[in-house]
């Protein structure tokens, strides 16, 4: 492990991947906190895990199949009602490309 | 209502005998909750009108004599969906979210006649051990309101300890039922992974999350398990294994029970007062006929490290869905879709949630995946194997639930690392998917301490019976905070 487990630039990169924007102050604070946490979890490297299989799923069953039948839950209106902005029964979102900044 | 009820059985009998009506009970419960809210802040939403309507309905259709939850108020952690009733996960990003369906556990308790009294406060998205990260403010411990109630199910624990309700539900990803149960002097059970459906639980870490009861005594926890346990086809991880009668399993007899006490659970980092109290508790179990040996879970000391990789990794994935499009908070000032996502999330999530999302995103990112995520997943295998070895020779494992009693509000929020270390005794059971209960084991400096009992997968009956034998032969569960109207002065 490098001397510095995570740099500020890496924290900013990770935030971008997670669709979060950080203020300057937050970026500094998270860098030092994540640095400390990653140093702590890096202690796992003391343990030899050669030939150990990873556990990523705790369920005791494998795939369970059901009949492929469509069900109408009649919840469309209730679901649409929860959306912050709607129009004519559709969820409304802003433009994917910001037209106001078009050259 | 002047008489007080110590358990569901007594309360149920009073309802059946018509000593009081469900409406009177619900009215009094609501009054007690509101009387305590200034001091505790245990609820995000109190369900005043609808709870009274449900109680009235219970009175009209008649109390079901065969059903201990008939007409009884129950509180739900606010990360369990309730149809049409605000469900926030204590986050700004869900500040206005009204689900279109009930969680399976809510459906089951409603079918059993329970009245939905309200939604309890928690750490935002259940991420924390003190209920201080809630967007809706800190919860206070009824034993001493300058102390935290633990977390993340701090609101459920506080309202049960304060005597407002006899039964609440919590969720436990790394100790979030057991640690607040310990800090509040109540019983909290994390069932086996798969025993209770998570349909309608707002997901934090899907390979770790379980829903479980928080009650004033072991029998009531068992009664609640009888209602909520079992297969639900909407949660593919829920088990089809037969659900035993957990109340019938409480014989109180633990003669010949083989108990293992991991030396790692009484070592470094455990408060001296807690250690003494737990050692006394273990002697009590021995006096009741159990045999006790020291055992070792050598990899459990790495549990925290593995947990703080796996939990955040799963959380970073689960929390991608909160984007301001379909429900919840949406930023008012986005010029395009990308900005809508980023601003909604940045304005909607609190710091602890952001920290964990970033930690998880980091652990899963190219270049870190093998070194962190896969390494932790392998350590998890070793922790599971440690437990299996001990359970070859022993029936249950006991130790403290938390390394200290409740700490002061604000004492650990500045340093996430100190906060994370509190989970050292509870995360191993989550990583291994095992059932574990915390049962009151006395006071240290006036604050409750919990004894933790961990069992084999799907061996809730034995775990609960061990806790029951301890409870019935001690008076710790009778200790109540002065705020509790059910207190015995």
TrEMBL record, chain A:
BP-aspect Gene Ontology terms: glutaminyl-tRNAGln biosynthesis via transamidation; regulation of translational fidelity; translation
Leading EC class: ligase
This protein's record includes keyword Nucleotide-binding: yes
Keywords annotated in UniProt: ATP-binding, Ligase, Nucleotide-binding, Protein biosynthesis, Transferase
EC number: 6.3.5.-
Gene3D superfamilies: Glu-tRNAGln amidotransferase C subunit, N-terminal domain (1.10.20.60)
Pfam (any one): GatC
Keyword set includes Transcription regulation: no
Gene Ontology MF: a single term: glutaminyl-tRNA synthase (glutamine-hydrolyzing) activity
Catalysed reactions, semicolon-separated: L-glutamyl-tRNA(Gln) + L-glutamine + ATP + H2O = L-glutaminyl-tRNA(Gln) + L-glutamate + ADP + phosphate + H(+); L-aspartyl-tRNA(Asn) + L-glutamine + ATP + H2O = L-asparaginyl-tRNA(Asn) + L-glutamate + ADP + phosphate + 2 H(+)
Function: Allows the formation of correctly charged Asn-tRNA(Asn) or Gln-tRNA(Gln) through the transamidation of misacylated Asp-tRNA(Asn) or Glu-tRNA(Gln) in organisms which lack either or both of asparaginyl-tRNA or glutaminyl-tRNA synthetases. The reaction takes place in the presence of glutamine and ATP through an activated phospho-Asp-tRNA(Asn) or phospho-Glu-tRNA(Gln).
Assembly mode: Heterotrimer of A, B and C subunits.
Recorded family membership: Belongs to the GatC family.
NCBIfam families: gatC
HAMAP family, A to Z: GatC
Protein name per UniProt: Aspartyl/glutamyl-tRNA(Asn/Gln) amidotransferase subunit C
Organism taxonomic ancestry: Bacteria, Bacillati, Bacillota, Bacilli, Lactobacillales
Encoding gene, per UniProt annotation: gatC
